Amino acid sequence: MIKVSVLYPNRPGVTFDMDYYCATHMPLVRECLGDACKGIGAELGLAGGAPGSPAPYVAAGHLLFDSVEAFQSAFAPHTERILGDLANFTDVEPLMQIAEVRLAP
Fold first, then answer.
1. How many CB atoms sit inside 10 A of residue 75's CB?
2. Distance separating alpha carbons of residues 79 and 72, to the nearest angstrom
């Protein structure tokens, strides 16, 4: 199994509408990706590792797939629609990481 993480860097003055992200954007992503997407999650950054430090990411979204190929096949036809929605909830350019899941609950 692989996890696609979309990380939204935190910076002073960053705009991120978590309500829109959870209620509108993530359901849009789920609809576009269909059954290839095995799981979905969203996180709101609260703090960094040191006391009083800001979270390095204002938010993160996570998607689970059986393989990188399954993700790429599901995402490619909807890239424009999914990425086109970013301006509706943030002004920061996200980073993406694809990782192999080794341990899971």
1. 19
2. 10
CA angle 36–45–96, rounded 5-degree value: 40
The DSSP symbol for 102 reads -
Residues contacting residue 103 through CB under 8 Å, at least 6 positions apart = none
CA 78 – CA 32 distance, rounded (Å): 6
- Rounded to whole angstroms, the Cα distance separating 25 from 37 reads 15
Confidence of residue 74 (pLDDT cuts 50, 70, 90): very high
Helix, strand or coil, per DSSP, at residue 98:
strand
For all residues of the chain together, what is the average pLDDT? Answer: 96
- Reported pTM: 0.93
Q: How many CB atoms lie within 10 A of CB 105?
A: 2
Instruction: Name beta bridge partners: 99.
Output: 3
